[in-house]
Amino acid sequence: MKGPMNGTLEFIDTGDIAMSNVVEHGGMTDVEWDPTGRYVTTAISYWSQKMDTGFIVWSFQGNVLYRNPVQMEKFCQLLWRPRPPSPLSKDDLQTIKKEMKKYQMVFEQEDRSIRSKASKELLEKRTKLMKEHSEYRKRREDLMRDRKRIFLEGREQCTLTLHVYAYHAPKVCVFIVEENVNIGFALQKVLSGNACPMFSCAS
């Protein structure tokens, strides 16, 4: 790690032998892969230099999973716990390696089933929410229509409309009054002579 590439990590996809990521950890002195091959750590050891000591945990794809937030004073070394021996025999391991594709297909099918189930549940949840929203909106619209109707009916009842019809007969004067609020008030108004001047009574 000395020279122009100091602190640079290149992650290679062994499937197609292509570089998947390039990252940097300036001044790093140690690199340690975990026993599973899924994680790798880079560290700056106090044994090699006194400044910026600490470590970073990366995924096998080169993504940062953990970085110590401050300098770890006198940090010397990070080691992974040794992987325990496998309970499988060598023959079992060989069988698994040979049938890996079959197991891979099974696992992929299970993953697709889980994703499909999750998508179905999400769709059902969204449909339920949309239905509840539509029902709530319909109730509010019905309520607004009822309130509008009551309001308009109230306005009509509060509007005073007076219609007076005079029928002339010998010594008889008949008044018919139509009014929406106070008939007594309208009659009093007519009989007191405050009605329209076009009406008269035969003597």
Automatic annotation (TrEMBL):
Domain Translation initiation factor beta propellor-like as annotated: residue spans: 3-77
Chain coiled-coil ranges: 119-146
Signal peptide feature range: none
Swiss-Prot/TrEMBL keywords: Coiled coil, Cytoplasm, Initiation factor, Protein biosynthesis, RNA-binding, WD repeat
GO CC annotation: eukaryotic translation initiation factor 3 complex
Gene Ontology MF annotations: RNA binding; translation initiation factor activity; translation initiation factor binding
InterPro entries: EIF3B (IPR011400), TIF_beta_prop-like (IPR013979)
Keyword DNA-binding: no
PANTHER family the UniProt entry points to: EUKARYOTIC TRANSLATION INITIATION FACTOR 3 EIF3 -RELATED, EUKARYOTIC TRANSLATION INITIATION FACTOR 3 SUBUNIT B
Protein name per UniProt: Eukaryotic translation initiation factor 3 subunit B
